[in-house]
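hiii, so i know i said id send this last week but things got crazy w the move. better late than never?? heres the sequnce for the chain we talked about at the cafe, plus the structure i predicted for it. fair warning i was half asleep when i ran it
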Amino acid sequence: MSDIEIRDDRAAGRLEAVAGGDVVGRIEYFVLDEPRRALVPVHTVVEQAHEGKGIAGSLARELYGIASREGSAVAPLCPYVAKWAQRHPDEAPSADPELMAAAKKGLADHPEMF
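okay and structure toks below
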């Protein structure tokens, strides 16, 4: 993983893992403002040639790190991120039901985002 750079392309809604100038993995997300600010991961993708190298986990860890630094929550709609969060409760505080419902509604209201 030392040759992997993780960058946040907030405008595009992607947290990207970059190796050798190529995006080899990403979490696609959107930002929810109500009922409180949250990052909402929807999809995690790692290119097949890079699977099994810990990239998805590093992306999930960084997503929660960004949220923590910004004072935001994470409402994981992405199954991978949700499972990662369950395995790392010390790094990934769970989202309350109201926030999860708002995230689901935000995605349903804007399906064109993903």
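btw The mean pLDDT is 94. thought thatd interest u
miss u guys!!
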